[in-house]
Amino acid sequence: MSHITSYIQENLNRFLDELFVILRTPSVSSIPAHSPDMLNCAKQLVQALNFAGADFAEVFPTAGHPVVFGKKMIDPSLPTVLVYGHYDVQPIDPRNLWDSDPFEPEIRNGAIYGRGANDDKGQLFMHIKALEYLLRHNKLSCNVKFLLEGEEEIGSESLKAWAENHKDMLKCDAILVSDTTMLDEKVPSINCGMRGLAYLEVEVTGPNKDLHSGHYGGAVANPINELCAMIASLIDSNGKITVEGFYDDVLDLSVEERAMLARAPFEIEHYKKSIDINEVKGEVGYSTLERTGIRPCLDVNGIWGGFIGEGSKTVIPSQAFAKISMRLVPNQNHKKIAALFEKHFIKIASPCVTVKVKPHHGGQPFLTPISSEMYKTASNAIQEVYGIEPVPTRGGGSIPILADLQDILGVNPLLMGFGLERDTIHSPNESFLISQFTKGIEAIVKFFEGYSG
Amino acid sequence: MSHITSYIQENLNRFLDELFVILRTPSVSSIPAHSPDMLNCAKQLVQALNFAGADFAEVFPTAGHPVVFGKKMIDPSLPTVLVYGHYDVQPIDPRNLWDSDPFEPEIRNGAIYGRGANDDKGQLFMHIKALEYLLRHNKLSCNVKFLLEGEEEIGSESLKAWAENHKDMLKCDAILVSDTTMLDEKVPSINCGMRGLAYLEVEVTGPNKDLHSGHYGGAVANPINELCAMIASLIDSNGKITVEGFYDDVLDLSVEERAMLARAPFEIEHYKKSIDINEVKGEVGYSTLERTGIRPCLDVNGIWGGFIGEGSKTVIPSQAFAKISMRLVPNQNHKKIAALFEKHFIKIASPCVTVKVKPHHGGQPFLTPISSEMYKTASNAIQEVYGIEPVPTRGGGSIPILADLQDILGVNPLLMGFGLERDTIHSPNESFLISQFTKGIEAIVKFFEGYSG
Q1: Cβ contacts (< 8 Å) between B296 and chain A: which residues?
Q2: Phi-psi group of A193: left, alpha or beta (phi > 0 → left; psi -120 to 50 → alpha; rest → beta)
Q3: Is B182 within 8 Å of B419 (Cβ atoms)?
Q4: Cα–Cα distance for residue pair A392/A193, rounded to 1 Å
Q5: Which of B199, B232, B313 sits opposite A229 (nearest CB)?
Q6: Are strands A143-149 and A80-86 parallel, antiparallel or unpaired?
Q7: For an interface test with B, which of A183, A267, A299, A350 has the most B Cβ atoms less than 10 Å from its Cβ?
Q8: Are strands A111-113 and A106-108 parallel, antiparallel or unpaired?
Q9: Theoretical Cys-Cys bridge with B80: which of A188, B103, B172, B295, CB 3.0 to 4.6 Å?
């Protein structure tokens, strides 16, 4: 058994105890009431970094939730890796679908259950424990910096400006991130690209007040019916998004690239079973993996209007609302897409209603070249731990800030994620397999041992 | 000045004080937490009836909210009028749009403001005060019974069974109701018909849990998008409802009937201005008054799904929901329509989702003949008070229980309503003009003086 393997075994219970303290802190960035928890969580991470042996770790205020920055500089002449992670988590609703308290982590069937167990507290903590091991055994071969933010789940609105103001402090040769999934424990993979995001909120207003649906029904446009019709028209029968100009900047992949992507093992029946659906649905002419990896899409993430309480109310509401987001692929620009959407949505509105479109947040898609030193080092590290060469894939999700950091720091991020589809992040019963947690620490250790810039 | 006019002037402040006590009781029938308020309100009405001189008044339990029954029998050989009303009110949301506490009534610009000021506490209270006057001056020329329920706003689910069990007690020759509007103070009108209602709730389920919209977006049918597409398809470009068989039983009106209805003064610009819309919208080939009076319609009364809180959440929800109701016209059957809707809605669902349709409640439409003694007596009473012959109209709203009472008791209800469009019942800032309140009492007095069965 390798030295790192036995070290993890000997210290696993302590690692978990330390992680659970952080998981118990309800750092939900989208809910203002949780602001104090954000600061507490940031302080807990500073403690963890100091305990691991960082020579600097502090909480930095931003326009929003605080940022944690830490570092261990062993030799200025050696390359520096910046580890990015986020300590904020998604809301927990619907709470009633959780089998255990989302903020009282527990271990069931070899997995940690709780909000943030995986995304991203569990995954960023692997890097802190890898640093601890490397420092205690003098095996660190590069400088390491940590940038841990508290607004990833709400679009990293403050971090971009903060990073621009702390450009020198963040100076690095590479950005390493564990905030994504791999295809399977037996089919490790590395994300070489992520989709971007354009997230908007729409408001449809009809009459200036709620109306009695008996007195007015049939003569007045109902904002909910109008909103539904507008949303229905956004995707055509081929699964194509109807917003004018939406696909203009999309780069179609070559036959070779699509073939490479298709090497990733994928069982459609297993996929459907895992989420209990009878049929998949998406853009005609593309596989399910392509639909989530290399093609853009549009989803309504939330909708509300009228009487939604218990019982019934015969009302034509004055307004109806929806949160709508689009996932973008390389070469699409989220600001341009948001503008196209706004223009289109206002254009398709009936003269009977008025429409407001509010851009929420967004992020650029990006791509990490497989040819890079970073990718090769990560690929070797994973192969050593899993015994299999990882498959390069595309991530369907978005980490908008990574595209920004790429701009600001001029280096490519690499996404070495250890989550699995089963972990259901963002949903009730989020989890993280302990085996992935320990393998992740091992792989990160080997990366830091092997990285030479 | 007539005797009744001066009596009202002398006692108006007391009348209002007595009414305000009842308006302060938050009897919202659709919200279980208000159950105690329902009983309190019922007891307040028993007190009011006794004070007016009823020889019997009691609260009767039902399967749901209690019923108040009271009566004054002056001579078994004289005809008996049953006054129907309801003391339950609609929910107050959105609370922030009220200019004053919905349950602390106040008078502004000659009107009473508060939930229930009009619908129906204010209107039923006119009958109690009319009874008080007639008894104090020995002018009552028929027997009077009161049936005041607490579930009208939620479909009168318990009253039908209760009325069947108390058929003898409710025995009467006519049913008189003030729970509707008239066209205008200067254009008094009497409703000779009401639309029916079929109210359902739909549930669309996709994946068995909420999904990360980045990981799954583009490959999995989103229940909100699916629900919106289904709702959008329910009404075609001519404003016709697409549910198969929906119009089969609708009786088209004759040219003469439509012409008579068209006599009601109506200014489209004033109508649009009153609710601040640029254009009306409805079934092609019918006027606005016809669209709300003699034609059926479909409205989404509420919709919800996904993340509807502050901020953003990138989720594909497992489920989406909507409350959908249809207003029906004479000869349509609400049970048949609900069944047709359920069949249709399940039929149009994509194979990617499963759909549940839950009938909420409903009521039959009905029509009151203009040729009846009841109508003539009411018409004369209104003409005496307003100095104008009232216009016969159709009501767009629904009072399902009246159709049931018509069946059970075998007599026609007459809808002598004193509300005005400006009163915005069911909405924030519900109000009732004091001038309509006092004229209403006068007209009811004259009705009871003139009614000979």
Answers
A1: 218
A2: beta
A3: yes
A4: 9
A5: B232
A6: parallel
A7: A299
A8: antiparallel
A9: B172
Residues of chain A positioned with their CB less than 8 A from the CB of B421: 215
Claim: this prediction has a pTM higher than 0.90: no
Please measure the distance between the N-terminal and C-terminal CA atoms of chain B and give it in whole angstroms.
28
Tell if the CB–CB gap between B424 and A316 is shorter than 8 Å.
Answer: no
Contact B302 A313 (CB under 8 A): yes
Task: For A424, name the nearest residue in chain B, comparing CA atoms only.
Answer: B211
Provide, as residue numbers in chain A, all residues whose Cβ is less than 8 Å from the Cβ of B302: 224, 305-308, 313, 315, 317
Nearest to A217 among B91, B211, B292 (CB): B292
Cβ of B309 and A30 within 8 Å?
A: yes
Three-class SS state of B166: coil
pLDDT confidence tier of residue B326, bands split at 50, 70 and 90: very high
Tokens linked to A450: 């092997």
Pairwise CB contact (< 8 Å): B360 & A312? yes
Phi-psi map region of B410: left, alpha, beta (phi>0 left; psi -120 to 50 alpha): left
Q: How far is CA B80 from CA B264, B297, B415, B447, in A?
A: 32, 36, 17, 13
| HEC string for A345-370 | HHHCCCCCCEEEEEEEEEECCEECCC
Q: Please give the Cα distance from B192 to B253 (Å, whole number).
A: 14
Query: B302, A280: Cβ pair inside 8 Å?
Result: no
Query: Distance (Å, rounded) from C-alpha B366 to C-alpha B374?
Result: 16
Give tens-digit pLDDT for A260-296.
778 788 899 999 999 999 999 999 999 999 999 889 9
Tens digits of per-residue pLDDT, B286-325? Answer: 999 999 988 999 999 999 999 999 888 899 999 999 999 9
Cα–Cα distance measured from residue A150 to residue A60, given in angstroms and rounded to the nearest whole number = 11
Phi, psi of A329 (to 5 degrees): -115, 165
Residue A405 CB burial class (10 angstroms; 0-12, 13-18, ≥19):
buried
- d(Cα A341, Cα A333) in Å, to the nearest integer? 12
| Non-local CB neighbours of B281 within 8 Å, separated by 6+ positions | A219, A220, A221, A350, A352, B239
At B159 the three-state DSSP class reads: helix
CA–CA dist B171, A403 (Å, integer): 78
Cβ pair A131, A15 in contact under 8 A? no
Token duo for residue A281: 């649905």
**Minimal Cβ distance to B425: which of A212, A301, A304:** A212
The full set of domains in chain A, from first to last, is 3-194+365-450 (3.40.630.10), 198-250+296-362 (3.30.70.360)
The sign one gets for the Cα dihedral A340, A346, A349, A351 is negative
Average pLDDT, chain A: 94
- Residue for token digits 């009271």? B70
First to last CA, chain A: 28
Question: Smallest CA–CA separation between B31 and chain A, in Å?
Answer: 7
Q: Which residues of B touch A94 (CB under 8 A)?
A: 210
Mean pLDDT of A390-396: 84
